[in-house]
Design a protein that fits this description.
single chain; about 300 residues; 2 domains; four-stranded mixed sheet; globular
Length: about 300
């Protein structure tokens, strides 16, 4: 198993040192192009065919990545914080350790090579604010990343977020992604990923996407989530999964859900499943969602 690292700090310095009209292309072709197979899966071109069209710059801006036009006088300080060799070593070990969990349980992962990086987040972006300054993406097998506003809080937690994303990376090698994915499937996948991260690094490093929802709030929304487990397509299930505020940012109708309700409910559903079956979260990661949901019927009445 090989984990390759793309050191973004060096590229960010080249961006800040470059003339303004050169910066976007350095972002595109040095920082983003190594992940091009990932962007191709999302149908995101590196460069739009027309000026101002949809491309990796616009997509990055929308999802909360710091793009060249949003860099400020504080960006060099953030790059310096991102340049800590110990941080990159710790994060590389997080991905390697996560992958090794499967090997140790006799699970043969098809992909043998992975690329990961750490990126800077845009502190003005609503997604960044709601996620307490850090986030990640591991949905396309072979590619893992996290983005953050470097500070004491995020730097102490980003490795756990990478474990979460690595779990997604493995799961979607066994359970193939499809565009009409259901809310139930998404809740299972997110619940598995966060339980996996917690199993390695402890519950104190659980992300805000599960910790912000009090158990009393969870009890009040479980029924509505259960009634909508079969809702299909991201445009229809996002409000249940991410909550009304995030859905509104995408122009989607509210459904009465708090921040990351589906994440939090999925997290506790998986805890129920693991306790009931005695499985490890590593073993459960490669199971079909239907099997997990069927075994977890009692969760909804608890």
């Amino acid at each position: 198993m090989t984990v390759r690292t793309l050191r973004s700090d060096d590229i960010y310095r080249r961006i800040t040192d470059a003339a303004p009209n050169k910066r976007d292309d350095i972002f595109r072709y040095e920082l983003m192009s190594p992940f091009q197979r990932k962007w191709d899966c999302y149908r995101i071109p590196l460069k739009a065919k027309v000026e101002g069209g949809y491309d990796i710059i616009m997509a990055s801006r929308m999802t909360g990545l710091l793009t060249p036009s949003k860099m400020t006088d504080d960006t060099p300080r953030q790059i310096d914080m991102l340049s800590d060799d110990a941080l990159w070593e710790r994060c590389t070990r997080a991905v390697e350790r996560s992958l090794s969990q499967f090997e140790q349980e006799g699970i043969d992962i098809p992909l043998k090579e992975y690329l990961f990086t750490l990126l800077l987040a845009d502190g003005d972006n609503p997604y960044t604010i709601m996620n307490e300054g850090y986030c990640g993406d591991g949905g396309i097998p072979g590619f893992i990343m996290a983005w953050l506003i470097p500070d004491g809080y995020t730097l102490s937690r980003v490795h756990a977020a990478l474990a979460h994303e690595t779990n997604h990376n493995v799961r979607f090698q066994f359970q193939k992604w499809h565009d009409d994915i259901t809310l139930g499937e998404m809740m299972v996948s997110e619940g598995l990923a966060e339980n996996f991260a917690v199993s390695i690094y402890g519950e104190e490093l659980a992300g805000p996407w599960v910790k912000k929802t009090e158990l009393s709030t969870l009890d009040s929304i479980k029924g509505e989530l259960r009634r909508n487990l079969d809702v299909q397509g991201l445009e229809n299930l996002n409000a249940y999964l991410y909550g009304d505020d995030m859905a509104a940012l995408q122009g989607l109708a509210p459904v009465g859900m708090p921040y990351c309700a589906g994440y939090a409910c999925g997290y506790h559903l998986i805890r129920y499943f693991l306790k009931k079956t005695g499985m490890t979260v590593t073993q459960a990661t490669i199971l079909p969602s239907e099997e997990i949901l069927s075994e977890s019927e009692g969760f909804w009445n608890g």
